[in-house]
Design a protein that fits this description.
The protein is built from twelve helices and eight strands. The chain is α/β, with parallel strands linked by helices and 282 residues long. It has a domain of 186 residues: Rossmann fold, CATH 3.40.50. An eight-stranded mixed sheet has the order 2-1-8-7-3-6-4-5, with helices on both faces.
Amino acid sequence: MKKQILVVLIVSLLSISFAEKLAYQIYNVNGKKVSYDKMIKELKEADIILFGELHDNPISHWLQLELSESMLDRNPVFGAEMYEADNQIMLTEYMTGKISSQNFKDQMRLWKNNPTDYQPLVELAKENNRPFIATNVPRRYASIVFRDGIQGLDSLNDGAKAWMVPLPFEIDMDLPGYKSMAEMGMDHGGDNIVQSQALKDATMAYFIIQNRIPGDVFIHFNGTYHSNNFEGIYYYLKKADPSLKIITIASVEQADLDSLEAENENMADFTLVIDDNMTKTY
């Protein structure tokens, strides 16, 4: 009898130990732990969801797919930083079965982690007949701005300018995120880094606005720095339409998941905190 009790105690202790080893924890904007289901309930009320990811983190990508499946009853329109606007025709052709997966792979300028991290999102949208929007400015134009400043875009023809936010557009260099970026890059581009980042943020916001369907939710996937602290894409969306209900998700890594570190507070409506020992996708 004593042996049985001892075995039960050992199993119970082991179960508690295993249960406490979490891969992630979700916090709300007030720094309180919330469940996945609680987050989804609030996301159901959004017009736009900005899911900020860590590009090489498998938990970010897994939850993006889980979240997308949970939101199918809101008829989502999907969009992503990882696909550039001038590739929208090919993306739509693939989504509608006009071109093969091989054509898609060969011509889309895909990120190296696309097969594992982003293609599943495209396939989910395709299977459910939902649009997927390539929102980012073509990287060659962001490179021009990084090298020559925003004025470097003036000489582009109208065809090229169709793949970005209409010019000129406002860049608020006093936004905390942009100011910090300018200071960090003082010896490597300075203001040009900020202008290049702003071009991406404004362009992604522009194509979200252009392609959202009133009554449906738009789910956008982007690097977390593009929407952290309610700046970046969020800033440009609110500037275009202050009435939009936008919910942001940020992704961070911490050694301890039991509380939200001070530097990660107030970063987003929901913050996905991931064990910093997590393996990477590349």
